[in-house]
Amino acid sequence: MQLSKNNGSLSNGASDNAGAFSLSDAELLDKAKTIRRHIVEMVGKAGSGHPGGSLSAVEIVTALYFRALRHNPKNPQWADRDRFILSKGHAAPVLYAALAECDYMPVEELSTLRQLDSRLQGHTDMTTVPGVEMSAGSLGQGLSFSVGVALAGRLDKRNYWVYTLLGDGECDEGQVWEAAMAAAHYKLDRMIAFVDYNKLQIDGWNKDVMNLEPFTDKWRAFGWYVIEIDGNDFGQVFSAIDSAKKVSNQPKMIIAHTVKGKGVSYMENNVDFHGKAPNEEEIKKALKELK
Amino acid sequence: MLESTRDAYAKALLEVGRKNADIVVLDADLAKSTKTITFAKEFPDRFFDCGIAEQNMMSIAAGLAASGKVPFASTFAVFASGRCFDQLRVSIAQPGLNVKVVATHGGITVGEDGASHQGIEDLALISPLPNFTVIVPADSVEAAQAVEAAAKTQGPFYIRMSRSSTPVIFGDDYEFSIGKSVTIRDGKDAAIIAVGIMVAPAIEAAERLTADGIDCRVINMATVKPLDEEAILKAAAETGCVVTAEEHLVRGGVGSAIAQVVAENQPVPMEFIAIERNNAKSGKPELLLERCCLTDSDIEQAVRSCISRKG
Question: What is the CATH number that goes with domain B182-308?
Fold first, then answer.
């Protein structure tokens, strides 16, 4: 994995934030690899799940939990914490892996994914997993939920940030655009959303299933401040968060171009691994690549 | 005296809103009809008009509730239950978030707006959702108290209000309690278990039956979920037949739920006053009630027929 030459070093990012975690650039790259290994192993053990869209979002989620986000694993309900709302609930493995690496739960628990009586359901459940902010699984509801969280923050005069991660295919849902309109209408400038734009959804390429383009224009037209980045590049993720935070009076959308299945050669840009677990051979191969 | 339950909602919202600063109200461009406009005027900062986007409104309400607010979200019953079913299920019911859905314009007595606007399936949709408490107040007194109770009680609520003005049944001394039915009139020959606007005609029917020496119990089952099973079984055991009355489709309605309790524990003959087919049309509320066989005479007849089936 290479850091972008154009966007300077990672240390430019989100430095104003006194988060619980503040990994160095090298540690972040290591952490991303560890999280990728967890995703492959947990989905592999479960025998089902969504590795592709979990792997594409690793840099975004890692950047948030290990540097950008103000949060406290010892006090998951801390009223002033920044919120991360995973709207694409099928990417639960990347969230669970990050939460476990932050000590919200034991790392060993990851191997219980999708098993009967495990806290780790196939899609997120906010009532059982500490650190999970929203129960998701039916797409299109997370941005609306985030609007509610941001409105509450404004009413209570708290200055937390509300980060939301949407899938690209998820943006086919009409409710996403209802929420987009509302966030701009209410001028929710504490909202920073990402679209994990890996270009693939279950039935194929976005452009063939339901074209999203011109995607950035759509968000701009809905009143959002839009930044477009390589979402698998830590440097770009951090500088996007930094620039987003400087913009007031409107919500911010970071269109993160990513690669589905990123980091595992045979899963990259392979839609078959949207919702399929790797077999034993494939798990071994993936873990070798992620050493 | 006549008053609509939605007018009672407006007054009760102000009361609870003045006491609890965490109460916020959401509407979907129907604030003048649902009457949340009264709250909006007094607390503009705590009122959010979400525009004609009910699904968005329900998930916003979920986010507010997850952040410690007590959101009341209002729209018509057809939209609250039908259009937003998935949002109620995933964003609110499954995590048990503290959202109060107050749906107005329930039932066919919406009247002239016609079939698209007549919420007659909502109880069937909402009652199976986990964690939801479902209330159908019988009059404005009970409606106000139901709103107060919901504001004080953790968890999701669905409260169904009516558009039309209906008779005020209860006095100022009335005390509503979640999950407790109220026996308005005791009786030993038959029991009518009614909800919402059907409680008044149920009382009327029972009064009329006394002329023939029929002693009819009338129970107001305002909390549709959880049901007051004890009162249902007591009524079945003591009267030997049960007639249910509701302004809702017969399938999946309150009658079905009561029948399940009766059939499992204390089987007795039952009759169901409810809407048989969704053949509703535009029309004046009272004419629609006649067309759908939801009048005091229909209840009276059902009681006679039910008594005749006793073993």
Answer: 3.40.50.920
